[in-house]
Amino acid sequence: MNKKKLQTLSIGFQHVLAMYAGAVVVPLIVGGALELTFEQLTYLISIDLLACGIATLLQVWKNKFFGIGLPVMLGCTFTAVGPMIAIGSQHGISAIYGAILVSGLFVVLVSKYFSKLIRFFPPVVTGSVVMIIGLTLIPVAFNDMAGGEGSADFGNPVNLLLAFGVLGFILLLNKFAKGFLRTISILIGLVAGTVAAALMGMVDFSEVGEASWFHSIHPFYFGAPTFNISAILTMILVAIVSLIESTGVYLALGDITDREVSGEDLEKGYRAEGIAIVLGGIFNAFPYTAYSQNVGLVQLTGVKTRQAIFAAGSILVVLGFLPKIAAITTLIPTSVLGGASLAMFGMVIAYGIKMLSKVDFENQGNLLTVACSVGMGLGVTAVPEIFANLPESIRILTDSGIVAGSLTAIVLNILFHVIPARSEKAIQTQFREEQAS
Question: I want to staple 381 with a disulfide (CB 3.0 to 4.6 A). Which of 76, 114, 296, 401 is the partner?
């Protein structure tokens, strides 16, 4: 291997490391919440790495139908964690993948028109939705920090020590580390926490030894998908938020690489994401979105070509066929994962606040939109039985705090910003007509 190829491979591996924590933490959290067996969890992590690789290769392979052709990495979206856990707990794991399939097809179909629909999802809507998703994830993190909901040692001081130790270590890395070390602070925190737990005798290595080195792909591994309307609406909302987030990533990468991103480019990027989501549904993985952490790495390394991303995608595909690697990942104790999750889920909330920072809060309509949508989302999450006596056809929209809060944000945005704008235009038209006559 010549020097240039070795450099490309090493930079590709850095991209894998930068997104690896996000890629494996999502299946660990979702699998743990749904109480999957060790074998099922190992498969979930393996297939997720494989799907991340395929999704990334689809995105950088620019052609007539899909692929934006920018150095972008795709990974499972954190905004899907809470909804997937809620759907799986309420309707079963098969409903998760039915909803993912439909949401992927939805993205493929609307990719051509999405840029025209973007006005219905300004920062006041998307910021509120992201905040709601982040806030609904915090209880998951706290349960994990205590040892996992229903566990025999729930709330054990040792679990809390590990959880807060990992959280503190991640914070210190972000304070004092620089460059690449800061980028992978979550991954380093998980490794350090697992090592500490192993020294305390809290890690069992036996199952890793039993895991095979290679495995084959099994479409619909968890069974045939089922289709629940409430679950589908939830995942479509998640997909829309992910597309909006990805738009920012595409535009940022276009600026870094000195390339103008056209509407056609965005359409191909959206379509590639839709195909990736459909693959996630078929192979029982996750919805995928463009990862912003890798944008920083492109800027940090100064390597703006697609070759490094091709290398990264290929590495992920290879890792996806190695369940032994996935088994090692499952060694992470629940409390260690909880400590890291609190930082990550808190970042989801913080990102929602960042999106809301672009909003004009001098406008009373914007204040009411955020207030009512976040209040509705949290209210339904905290007291889900409030709508228990409503007809089932209406409960489709009220069973999930994320759906209820998101729809509230969309409707209020239309009420305060779309309808008044149209009414004002109609008044101006009528005034001109009267003046002309």
Answer: 401
pLDDT band (50, 70, 90) for residue 103: very high
What is the separation of C-alpha 36 from the centre of its chain, rounded to a whole number of angstroms? 20
Would you say 303 and 195 are in contact if contact means Cβ atoms under 8 Å apart?
A: no
| All residues at 6 or more sequence positions from 354 whose CB lies less than 8 Å from its CB, including other chains | 127
pLDDT, tens only, 408-423? 888 898 888 877 655 5
Greatest C-alpha distance within the chain? 89
Q: Count CA atoms within 13 Å of residue 220 on its CB side.
A: 8
Model confidence at 95, pLDDT cuts 50, 70, 90, reads: very high
What is d(CA 78, CA 241) in angstroms, rounded to the nearest whole number? 11
Pairing status of strand 74-76 against strand 288-290:
antiparallel
Distance CA 184, CA 157 (A): 27
Residues contacting 179, CB < 8 A, separation 6+:
300
* CA dist., res. 107 & res. 75, Å (int): 16
> How far apart are alpha carbons 308 and 273 in whole angstroms?
20
Residues in the chain: 437
Q: What is the DSSP letter of 74?
A: E
Buried b / exposed e over 394-416, threshold 16 CB at 10 Å, is eebbbbbbbbbbbbbbbebbeeb
- From 126, 79, 60, select the one nearest 273 (Cα to Cα): 60
